[in-house]
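Many introductory courses stop at the sequence. We go one step further.
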Amino acid sequence: MAERPGRPQLEYIRVAEALAARIAASTIPPGSRLPPEKALADEFGVAYGTVRRAMDVLREQGLVVTLWGKGTFARGEE
């Protein structure tokens, strides 16, 4: 999802890439719970829906898994 020169990057892509980088660097270690979506929205200065869309991207990429009622977790080595 590289940004194209001269074109603005969509906010949900920016958030997804930032979180993916944290997961890759183990800043968010495998198996750990990500902060709540509302907290991430506040941190990134975006709308809650933007974070939800970023989480969709991360789930599609297999980087996170969401367990209903428990939260979203970084995927570990399988």
